[in-house]
Amino acid sequence: LALTFSPVELGEHYFEFPVKAAGGQGEVPDGLRRVVHAKALRPRLLFGTTTLDFKTKVVSSGMQSVASQLELSLQNADDYPLEWRIDDEPLKKMMGVLHIEPSQGVLQPEGEA
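^ thats the sequence. predicted structure below, dont judge the formating
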């Protein structure tokens, strides 16, 4: 059973989960009552894209491959300065293959990096 929350407006949402006992009639027993609470917040940090696609790279032995570089923009959608950091620890396992720079910074309100 999957319950998906796809808000279209900011705010809090409460409702009683609509479940009834099989073959039951009338009131739902208290043991089956569940209240769902979900909150839709405004994002503080916006990403310029959700996917960075480097496409296929051909690597031949004895030849050095040409590096590809993609840019990701970050935007502060908050009213206050926002400190951000990308966890680059997993990239250290692939030293020389993937590198991100800068991996941290501070964005002023409505600022972009």
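The chain has a mean pLDDT of 85.
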